[in-house]
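User: Predict structure, ligand arginine.
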Amino acid sequence: MTASLTRRVDELLAGAFAACGLPTETARASRASRPELADLQCNGVMPLAKAAGRNPRELAAAIATALGERAEFDEVGVAGPGFLNLRLSAGFLAECAAAQASDHAHAGIEQVDTGLVMLDFGGPNVAKPLHVGHLRTLVIGESLRRILDAQGVRTLSDTHLGDWGLQMGMLLSELRLRFPDQPPGTLPPLTEHDLQVLYPEAAAACRADPARMDAARAATAALQAGDPDAYKVWSELRRISLEAQTRDFDLLGAHFDLLLGESDVQPLIPGMIADLRERGIAVESEGALIVEVATPDEAKPMPPLLLAKSDGAALYATTDVATLLARKREHDPARIIYVVDQRQALHFEQVFRAARRAGYADGIELIHAGYGTVNGPDGKPYKTREGNAAQLSDLLGDAIERAAERLPETTPDAERETLARLVGLAAVKFADLSSFRTSGYIFDAERMVSFEGRTGPYVQYACVRIGSILAKAASQGASAGPIAVTAPAERALVLECARLPDVVASASRNLAPNEIADYVFALAQSFSRFYSECPVLAADTDAERGSRLALCALTRMVMEKALWLLGIAVPERM
Ligand code: ARG
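Assistant: Predicted complex:
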C-alpha cells in the first residue's frame, strides 16, 4: 500500500518542522480555505511559536523556504499570522494520482488495526414487520460497517432481535385464544399479514383487559420455564418473522454476521444476577433489584438500572447487560457500537455504566451511536395516512416506484425493474445519510428520487456517465495513459480524489457517514467541472486523451468506492 497524498505531505511537513527544532504533532495539511491561492494549507506553526520564543511568521517563513526547494511543491508561501500555503507540483500530483489509481483494493484508504468492532443494529422485534423506524438503524449501521471494513478493521454485525419477554407471551396466549383447537406445540396456518396484526391486537387486548394480561404473563412464564409446547410455537413464530425481516435486510443490503436475539442470553441471566448480588452491585430497592449508576458529580443523578422486577420477568436492560457479557466472553471486541434510536440514550448510558461497574466491559469501548427520527411533511415522526408507523417495505416500494417513473423511456423493459430498485434505494439511502445522524429529516420520496441536486440518483448517474465515457473510449480503441496534471480542473479533480482516505478516516472517527455523502457529491461536481473544461475523447493529443481517460478511471473508482461505503450500488447503465 502506498501512502495517500495527505499522508505524504504531512510527512514532508513533519520533516521541515523537525529541522526547525519544532515538535511535529501539528505538522498537518488540510484543505486550503482559498483554493485560488493554494492546494493545501498548514495551520500548525502559530500554536508553536510562543513556546519556541519566536515570531510565528518568521518561523513559518523558515519552514516555507525549506519546503519550497522540494520537487513536491511549486510554491510554499506564508499568509496572515503564519499560515503555510502549499501549492503542489504537477509532477507530485500526477505521481499521487497514479499511486491511488493502482490501489485497486483500497483506493488509497489507509488500513488500520483497531481490534474487533461489533456493530449492533437493526434490532427488530418478533412478529413485527420492519417499519420506518428501522430504516435509519439499518442504513446507518450498514454504512458504518462498510466504512470500518474499508479501513481493514475486523467487524462483526449482530441484530439484537427482540424475541423474548412479555411480548412473546402476549402472542402465545393470543394464539391459544384464537385457535383453541390447535394441537399444542404447533402453529396454526398464518399468513404474513395475520402475523403482522397479531401482535398489535394482542397488545391492545392485554392493555384493555387484566385477565388477558394475566394470561399473557402466564404464557411468558411457561415459555421462560422451558415448557416444550410453548417453546415450539415460539421458535416457529420467530423463524417465520425472521424470514420476512431478512428479506428486508437483503433488499436494503444490510449484512449480519450474527442473527442473535434477546432469547440467546437468557440462560446467562440467573448466574449474572447472582454474581451482581454477591458483589453488592445489585441491591434490593422497593421490592425490585437495581444497580445504582449515578456518579457523585452529576447535578441530576441518573436513575438506577432496573435489573429485575419482583415477578422476576426478563427486562430489556438486564438482557443488554447479559448480551455484553456474552459478547465479551465469546468475541472480546475492542469496541461495540450500538446504532439505535437516540431516544434510547438513557437506556444505553445505564447499561454501559452498570456493565462497567460490574467489570463486564473491561477493555471494551462502548458507544451508542444514536439517530434522530424520520419525519413526515409536518416535521413529526413519519406516519401513514391512517396514522400508523409506515412499513419499511411500503416506504421502499414507494421510492422504487417513483424512481421507475423517472427512468428514461429508452430503458429496456428487461432492465427497468433492477434499475428502478437500484435508483430508488440509492435515493432513500443517500437522503438518510445526508445529514448528521442525530438530526432527524423529512422523508420526501419525490425529492429523493430526483436526478438533480444533492441526491443519490444524481451521484449514481455521475458515476454511470464516467463509465460510459470509458466504454466509448474503449470502443474507439483509445486507452488510458500516464497522468499529467495541467488544467486547473484536472488539478482540482486529482486533489478531490486524494481526499477519500482523509474523509473515510474522519467519517470513521466521528461515526458520520454523512461526511462520505458530502464528499461524493463534491467529487461528482468536481468531475462535472473537469468534463466541461477538459475535452476527453476530443482531446488535442493522444497523450492528453490518455491522461484524461486515466483521470476518468480514477474518479470512477473513487466514486464507486465512496458510494459502496454508503451502501449504494452503481448500475452498469442508466
Ligand atoms: N428491539 C429493540 C427495540 O425495538 C432494539 C434493539 C437495539 N439493540 C440493543 N442492543 N438494545 O427498541
